[in-house]
Amino acid sequence: MANIKALILNGEMDEGIALSRISQTLREALKEKNYIVEEKMLKEIDIKPCMGCYTCWIKTPGKCIIDDFGQELVSEIINSQLIVYLTPVVYGGYSPELKKVLDRIIPLMLPFFEKIKGEVHHPKRYENYPKVLALGVTDKDNQEETVIFKELIGRNALNWYNTFDGSVINIRNDSLVTAIAEALEGRI
Amino acid sequence: MIKNRNVLLLIGSPKKSRSTSESMGDYLLGVLKDKVDWHIEKIHILTNIQENPDTITSAANRSDLIVLAFPIYVDTLPSHVVRTLLLLETRLDKSKERDLMVLINCGFPETFHNDNALKICRYFAEQNGLNWRGGIAVGAGGAIIGKKLPDLGSMASNLMKSISILADRLIKDEMSQDDSILRVQVVATKMYNMTGNIGWQKQAQKHGVQDKIYDKPDVKS
Questions:
Q1: Which residue ranges make up each domain of chain B?
Q2: pLDDT at B179 over 60
Q3: Given an 8 Å threshold on Cβ–Cβ distance, is B203 in contact with A106?
Q4: Quick one: fold of B6-187?
């Protein structure tokens, strides 16, 4: 297995949990599985918020008109085989640093409404989508946050056209190497 | 009945005007203005969150009630709304009692697409000592397209009734219960899908890209 690209979207924030150790462990684990790994530290990249203008659907189909790195990142995402969302768990959701990227991925879908498995979603624009692994990181023993985070993964999975899975790693309780190995096991 | 409250409406849509979030927020403020003489402030989050975050935090600290109105982006809160919650967590004066209510709308017809965002907002409230006042979860929010709700006629009648119920709860100081989220689907699913899909085609046609609407510009060979 060669040339399989994994893109880590690192949603570390200026305040709160540092993700450098966990990201290093993750990179090493992915390389062992023959992935070519690239990582984006999103807080260092200026990506403007989605403006909700739908230009990417009705004027420039498939392309966002905001001329910043967000455009390039969306292209990188659809051309990767694996995307890893690495994020502190923020009230049970993603960090704003990660979310600013996810808000910009709607050009990857078509605008139309279609019932899929009994719910309305947007149909796929592309033939193939990368697998997604969402890893939430917390230092709290708070089950409520974890439950909300896993529910979000479940909702995102319904709007994505490939495997979309993930878990929450508690850096106070879990061994990083073991936690990463468990998170990857059977998912990539 | 509560007298003399300070209400802050935070608009979480990125659109500076004519957003569904603002339409719902304005209707709530209008009902409150008609029934009680509360002091009201309205702030567009995205205009302020980066350059003038103090505008948001100062108004939030003056308020007794924060009404957060926003659209669902990719199944949950938009990034700038999450950023606002983090800002409030660090800068709110938590010695003062304060309520949080949400007005959430999603572009899919079913209201359950709002559920993750509702849970996140409720959890935020619990963690930061805010009284959770529930709110409203709207499906088919795209049908409102930023119009004033009374101008939408019967399509918005259930939504206006529900917002009025929320306003009455606030005025009578009725705390919300677990089931206090009012759910309103503005347009029936089949109708919304059909008119929405025709609408996307028409808009693409208007911009001369009807033949490109299925393009795959980012495929690398």
A1: 6-187, 188-221
A2: no
A3: no
A4: Rossmann fold (3.40.50)
